């Protein structure tokens, strides 16, 4: 991949085997745009099973072994691919800086033809500090992605550690990088890619395992926007295609809210359904939902442990509200088809079944 032609037709993807990343690959494959994909994959097996799984959903693909900690690998691959899509983590500064370092080198080597970085963040960056308490709608801030400015947000907000680096790279004049940050709401639904179930459900099951019942951070009146994984992946593809055509907003204007106009779903509603399903399976001794004890919530917030991203934003993400107006995707003609067909609360039973099955598989592997 040393020629200009190869660079122009190569996409480097972080998170290709993940929930959103593999769904994006599914849709990219259906489009047949003719791009070669390089995927960062950890723990490659000698039998080539992961490569086979990835090529089953996207044929023109190669893998490089590495984790988000392998800065040299990430920087090297980012330097060679004109397009980078990072759906691996919203809160891993080292990998983001490695991507930007590689793209900076590429930009310097190809003046006038800057590379493109699409980074997946999240709407958790906008969450208030409601701590699960009920607030009137008029008291909850509302944001539009048009005119959105990171400088006006809490510097300690979720995802800010990575988003500010992306924004700075997109604003500079020397060795420029075209940057776009996608901010999805709660991504849900059973995916078609390699990872079928949502990370959000896995987080709840892990935390609530400590309590022995399903619960909320505080009373759980906080509510957020949602988006089906197929719509979220389609939004990424829509943004990517618009960028190829020079029609996407980038740099300072390159913030896209991946969301719908509502309805907003409260944590009480979500966790009640999950709790009832877990009770039905005999996993919990009681159904429904109630506020979680500190022993559970401290796994993701407000303990005395040394600093970590999870420690800092647990209550912020799980106990906050967010209200948004996703205008930029509407300008591109994007419509959340799957989200309208199957809302989150209707999707939860199937998602929880997938999560239970995944956990059972993991237990069997350990044993």
UniProtKB/TrEMBL annotation:
Gene3D superfamilies for the chain: NAD(P)-binding Rossmann-like Domain (3.40.50.720)
Domain of life: Eukaryota
GO molecular function (one): aldehyde dehydrogenase (NAD+) activity
Domain NmrA-like per the UniProt entry, residue ranges: 8-85
GO CC, one annotated term: cytoplasm
InterPro entries per record: NAD(P)-bd_dom_sf (IPR036291), NAD(P)-dependent_oxidoreduct (IPR051783), NmrA-like (IPR008030)
One Pfam family matching this protein: NmrA
Protein's name in the database: NmrA-like domain-containing protein
């Amino acid at each position: 991949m040393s020629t200009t032609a190869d660079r122009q037709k190569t996409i480097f993807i972080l998170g290709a085997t993940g929930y959103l990343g593999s769904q994006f690959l599914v849709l990219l494959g259906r489009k047949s745009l003719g791009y070669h994909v390089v995927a960062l994959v950890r723990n490659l097996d000698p039998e080539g099973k992961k490569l086979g799984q990835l090529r089953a959903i996207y044929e023109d693909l190669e893998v490089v072994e590495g984790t988000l900690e392998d800065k040299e690998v990430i920087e090297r691959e980012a330097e060679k691919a004109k397009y980078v899509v990072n759906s691996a983590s919203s809160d891993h500064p080292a990998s983001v800086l490695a991507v930007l370092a590689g793209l900076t080198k590429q930009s310097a080597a190809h003046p006038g033809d800057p590379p493109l970085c699409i980074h997946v963040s999240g709407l958790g960056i906008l969450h208030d500090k409601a701590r699960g308490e009920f607030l009137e709608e008029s008291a909850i801030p509302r944001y539009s992605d048009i005119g959105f400015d990171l400088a006006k947000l809490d510097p300690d907000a979720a995802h800010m550690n990575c988003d500010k680096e992306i924004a700075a790279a997109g604003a500079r004049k020397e060795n420029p990088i075209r940057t776009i940050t996608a901010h999805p709401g709660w991504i849900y639904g059973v995916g078609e890619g390699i990872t079928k179930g949502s990370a959000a459900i896995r987080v709840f099951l892990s935390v609530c395992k400590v309590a022995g019942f399903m619960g909320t951070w505080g009373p759980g009146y906080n509510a957020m926007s949602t988006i089906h994984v197929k719509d979220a992946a389609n939004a990424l593809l829509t943004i990517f295609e618009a960028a190829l055509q020079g029609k996407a907003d980038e740099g300072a204007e390159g913030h896209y809210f991946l969301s719908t106009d509502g309805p907003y779903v409260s944590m009480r509603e979500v966790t009640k359904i999950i709790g009832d399903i877990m009770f039905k399976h005999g996993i919990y001794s009681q159904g429904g939902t109630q506020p979680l004890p500190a022993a559970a919530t401290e796994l993701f917030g407000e303990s005395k442990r040394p600093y970590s991203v999870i420690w800092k934003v647990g209550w912020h993400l799980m106990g906050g509200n967010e209200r948004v107006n996703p205008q930029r995707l509407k300008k591109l003609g994007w419509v959340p088809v799957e989200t309208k067909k199957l809302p989150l609360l209707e999707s939860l039973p199937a998602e929880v079944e997938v999560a239970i099955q995944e956990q059972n598989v993991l237990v069997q592997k350990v044993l």
